[in-house]
Amino acid sequence: MTDAVRAALRGQRIELPSWAFGNSGTRFKVFAQQGVPRTPYEKIEDAAQVHRYTGVAPTVALHIPWDKVEDYTHLAGFAKEHGVGLGTINANVFQDNDYMLGSVTNPDPAVRRKATDHLLECVEIAAAVGVRDVKLWFSDGTNYPGQDSIRARQDRLAEALQETYDALGEDQRLLLEYKLFEPAFYTTDVPDWGTAYAHCLRLGDKAQVVIDTGHHAPGTNIEFIVAFLLREAKLGAFDFNSRFYADDDLMVGSADPFQLFRIMHEIVLADALRQEAGIAFMLDQCHNIEPKIPAQIRSVMNVQEATAKALLVDHDALAKAQDEGDVLGANAVFMDAYNTDVRPLLAEVRQEMGLDPDPVTAYRDSGYADKIVAERVGGQQAGWGA
Ligand code: PSV
Ligand code: MN
Ligand code: MN
């Protein structure tokens, strides 16, 4: 049992977002930090530090055009030299004046063309560097009743998704992310998992849903969505983060570690932790007031802790209690696992992997933070204000 748990923890993979290393903030203020990356290359250097001390975060997701470079193959080579690889390519059709009334659902066909061309560019970039996943999130929606046809916008969305899907290579995937609201406040064109699921179902096997844990109405039972999509083989990825209110993008596992445990329990039950199961576990966070590299390290550790607890659930005892209708017994088995202190186990697993058992302290003692403050002047904003 413990050997299997340790092996699963050693084999776990968590993808880092390049944008977590840049300056970020709210719409009220971006607090610039010292030593932040000035280029996509420097974001990769920082991400490599997170992998160096955790050993389970070997890929970096890119956001285009925030991470636009002349030569993506060169960037991929640079990443490799730093012990990491490029991950999911995220499209960005939410930061251009032309997209005020929407990107792929805009009433103007010329704007829709421009947006879809960007999605196709992302598929091309992914193909050029051998990346499997292209992740799409649309800020599209309306603010006022009557502003546009809800139904026509679904048609336009379907058309753009189809064109993008048709451009995918054999081994590529289109990952569709939903979000309840913001920046649109009346309707959002992909507001929930049901909408994302229905579009992905029509598109085919290479289209799957992304669950961003910050994108639901308060109180939504996210593990239900996880269980449902897993059962339908339509769960492609997570964007992990924590929230107290809306899309707060705080460190995963900081607001509600129990929810994260419940989510990871569904993953373990479905045997979907294995990389071959094809679920991409990504972070989508910004660190507005805390230092970014240690925050990413902490986030990876939080996911590991929730995973370790989920792996410790006694499935035989749980199934027995469930079969017998033993409500309290089943809940007790579940809570026993959640209440286990898995930090010593994870420290051992790290040692088995040749790592320092305490990644946060090891990073702090490395002197890297001082080095980047001294070397980098004029770090860039991650790309957006929220
Ligand atoms: C939108 O809120 C989102 O979650 C999407 O994943 C974007 O790509 C990302 O945030 C940008 O931070
Ligand atoms: Mn997201
Ligand atoms: Mn978000």
UniProtKB/TrEMBL annotation:
The keyword GTP-binding does not apply. GO terms for molecular function: L-rhamnose isomerase activity; metal ion binding. Pfam families: AP_endonuc_2. The gene is rhaA. This is L-rhamnose isomerase. InterPro entries: L-rhamnose_isomerase, Rhamnose_iso-rel, Xyl_isomerase-like_sf, Xyl_isomerase-like_TIM-brl. It comes from Phytohabitans houttuyneae. GO terms for biological process: L-lyxose metabolic process; rhamnose catabolic process. PANTHER family: L-RHAMNOSE ISOMERASE (PTHR30268). Residues 70-266 form the Xylose isomerase-like TIM barrel domain.
